[in-house]
Amino acid sequence: ADGVYLDGRRPESVTFCDARGDAMRRDFTINAMFYDPMEDRVVDLVGGGRDIEAGLIRTVGDPRERFGEDHLRMLRAARLAAALNFSIDRETEDAIRDLAPNIRSVSGERVRDELIRIMDSPNRAEGIRYLDRLNLLGEILPEVAALKGEKQSPTLHPEGDVYEHTLLAMEQLGETDFRTAMSVFLHDIGKPAARLERNAFHGHETCGAEAARDVCRRLKMSSSEMDCICWAITKHLTFKDARRMKESTLRRLLGHECFQVLLELHRADSIASTGDLSNYEFVQAKLEKYADEPILPPPLVRGDDLLALGAEQGPLVGEILKKVTDAQLEGRLA
């Protein structure tokens, strides 16, 4: 049995107890059942089996007490409901709505880990809808909550405001990694800051990358995850220029270590708006073209080579290397 909870996360003490005492310290009824291998039976002291059959997420005992013990359980309720296609018990839901501000006291790492689990689920968009309905989204990700009601051009975005577009884009994702899911989730969070007249958002990809970096830092993501997510957001409008790019520019883009994240972001973004995948298909064809050779082959000339030939160290060396690499990538030099 648990002692008193003073920090909204862990008890001051834990003591041995019987099965009922153990069950009563759990978060939700569906997580509070036991298997008795000696008698080959399920021990259910809190109605977890009944709630599974009913498709219901319900706390063990008083929901306000359970969420007071560990505030993260509120996020877990949203995750479980979305992942299992369950609904949330009314009393449990009301308690979460009232206690939602308490989630701000939970560390960024713990919020991140729960968000990773939401993003890993095929029902990730429904998970975000649950966070919104439970008043949790605005507490942990106010940048995303601010997208609700942010109008867009009905021609380019007949699906609705930026928030609905974001959820629709997330629904286009199949099994994917956390970086890709978060890139799609955050790709338009710069639109409120970049809004101009007539539903135009020039520069929102730059504003969005800056805002996404703040989110990633707050959630204590790794530098590599943060850099990849922010790069994809910065570049997510690049595909509209793909057909006009020099071959060297396009190959540098295709060869970036996070290009597959960007490619999936563009696909989901396109389907969730106009549905036009012509640029996506053009880039896919380019990838197939280079399937049997390195997209970014080893350089023909390096800086040390130029210095050995007597070139002076400085900007000119970089300019020469770029021109040589451009010619190599465009097939003019081999």
Automatic annotation (TrEMBL):
Residue ranges of domain HD in the record: 164-248
Domain tRNA nucleotidyltransferase/poly(A) polymerase RNA and SrmB- binding: 85-146
Any single Pfam family the record assigns to this protein: PolyA_pol
Family annotation (InterPro entries): HD_domain, NT_sf, PolA_pol_head_dom, PolyA_RNA-bd, tRNA_CCA-adding_enzyme
Keywords linked to the UniProt accession: ATP-binding, Magnesium, Metal-binding, Nucleotide-binding, Nucleotidyltransferase, RNA repair, RNA-binding, Transferase, tRNA processing
Domain Poly A polymerase head, first and last residues per copy: 5-58
Cofactor: Mg(2+)
Metal-binding is among the record's keywords: yes
Single GO MF descriptor: nucleotidyltransferase activity
The protein, known as: HD domain-containing protein
Organism field: marine sediment metagenome
